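User: Can you model how nicotinamide-adenine-dinucleotide sits in this protein?
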Amino acid sequence: MKVAVPKELRPGEHRVALVPQGVKALVKAGLEVVVESGAGAASGASDDEYREAGATVAPTAAEALSGAGIVLRVNPPSLSDPDEVGAMASGTILVSFLSPLANPELVRRLASSGITAISMELVPRITRAQSMDALSSQATVAGYKAVLLAAEHLPRFLPMFTTAAGTIRPGKALVLGAGVAGLQAIATARRLGAVVEAFDVRPAVKEQVESLGAKFLETEHEVTAEGEGGYAKELSEEQHQKELELIAGAIHQADIVITTAQIPGRDAPLLVTDEMLTTMRPGSVIVDLAAESGGNCAGTKAGETVIVHGVQILGPANLPATIPVHASQMYSKNITTLLGEVVGEEGQVTLDFENDVVGPATVTHGGEVTNERVRASLQS
Ligand code: NAD
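Assistant: Here's the modeled complex, given as structure tokens:
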């Protein structure tokens, strides 16, 4: 079975779906790997390193994809200019981030093209699948980088300094949403010496926040919304108001704010209002990691930096691509582990939809949209 790794075409994308180490693992498992020339260049992997790892390097995407039974990507394939879906033969297994709930046209096209599409977003968040969890691996990168961006834009130090030129008090960070990205943001801000406060609507998170040396914001009102599978659900309007009061009481002291709050399948909740921005010190920095799903902060513009009431609001798009070496290494590990679920000992591929990872993560197969939630979203 031939596995193809085309070059990512999304502007600003520097990651690759499979690093040379991953090639070795797949070749050992009995698969043949073909990488498009230059696919790893932006993440530090040369064509020669892929060859040394056991891959063949094809000069074009078309040649890499020709005869491939499995295609590995980071970003969803484009529908036109170039038609990356059309470049795959019927029956091909595609493994990629696909954002299937946000990309109905892509899902329909994958189904009608006879592609078996496995969506990395739909890998269940169960203990057994942790090493295949690309949402977590890439959120780790985003949480770390968000704090570095904030520190770079902040006209102050974050750590405390005791110098002959005076003592400088440590900066304050507020992290809203303490899932995978939020916890990594807390850890990074702590490593940079900031005093950190955090809040999340899942009470289970309090202990994790505190174990990282940050303070969990407490309220006498109940502001909790634990959903299924470790995710949050939407707060009631009354609880949302209580949460806004809690945040307003803390945000005016923050030098940097990292917002990461997301609710699967919905717009991100608004956590920082325009009025709150007026209470913050000019020059303070907000990095809104939810920018691409509507933003947690009033005024956020996805992919842009704006200044509102003197506060710098960054809405970075695709932060994992800015640390491509390790983001690709982690993603590649997620993918090779996932392929372990479909590749047998002799390198033969068996799709078992009863498998508790492959079943839920498969979006399309045999001309049908197989994932129930995605199918329902297409009908609504
Ligand atoms: P996410 O990106 O969907 O959301 C980020 C965070 O925002 C979550 O912690 C959520 O509770 C929080 N949030 C939502 N609404 C909020 C609001 N109004 N105010 C404040 N915070 C709000 O989530 P994620 O980081 O991808 O994952 C969340 C959790 O899922 C993890 O922390 C973990 O507990 C669980 N998880 C489990 C596994 C596993 O067992 N394999 C893997 C990954 C994640």
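A couple of observations from the model: The pocket of nicotinamide-adenine-dinucleotide is lined by residues 125-127, 130, 133, 135-136, 139, 176-182, 199-202, 230-232, 235, 243, 260-264, 269, 271 (CB under 6 Å). The mean pLDDT is 96.
User: Helpful, thanks.
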